Amino acid sequence: MAYDQNNVFAKILRGEIPCDKIYEDDFALAFNDINAQAPVHVLVIPKADYVSMADFSANASADLLAGFFRAVGETARILGLEGDGYRLIANTGSNAHQEVPHLHFHILSGKKLGPMLSR
Ligand code: 5GP
User: Fold this and answer.
1) CATH number of 8-109: 3.30.428.10, 3.30.1300.10, 1.10.630.10, 3.10.450.710?
2) How far is the CA of 44 from the centre of ligand 1 (A)?
3) Which of 35, 42, 91 to mutate to test the pocket of ligand 1 (most atoms within 8 A of CB)?
4) Hey, whose CA ends up nearest to atom 20 of ligand 1?
5) 57 phi, psi to nearest 5 deg
């Protein structure tokens, strides 16, 4: 799947759409989800054009892979989530109901989240 420069997270990275920023470094941007599914619901995206985890894991440089995953962990630390814990989700493709075609990790926390999947 080719990267779509008009997806909403590309627009956020270009500053065309505002976001409620939590953390930013050279590799990643983290911001609150506009439609939170938990008391804490933050999205972390790489600052590069990757559609999904499939694309990113196959094609990103070692520096970007490392920097992005450090940024995910750093965001959770900044949010103070390490004590009580948190859940990471990266929906990839249609089975997982990925809506935005730019890789993103959801960080979910702030309460007991229950079973991993709805049934
Ligand atoms: P997906 O289903 O692709 O894993 O998740 C996409 C997420 O992006 C959803 O949780 C949705 O609420 C969030 N989202 C969609 N558009 C925007 C937006 O313009 N701003 C922010 N902050 N989040 C968005």
Assistant:
1) 3.30.428.10
2) 11
3) 35
4) 34
5) -65, -30
What separation in Å is there between the alpha carbon of 96 and the centre of ligand 1?
14
Q: What is the pLDDT tens value at each position of the chain, 119 positions in all?
A: 899 999 999 999 999 999 999 999 999 999 999 999 999 999 999 999 999 999 999 999 999 999 999 999 999 999 999 999 999 999 999 999 999 999 999 999 999 999 988 76
pTM for the predicted model, two decimal places: 0.97
Tell me the DSSP string of the chain.
----TTSHHHHHHTTSS---EEEE-SSEEEEE-TT-SSSEEEEEEESS---SHHHHHHHS-HHHHHHHHHHHHHHHHHTT-TTT--EEE---TTTTT--SSS--EEEEESS---SSS--
As annotated, the active-site residues are: 104
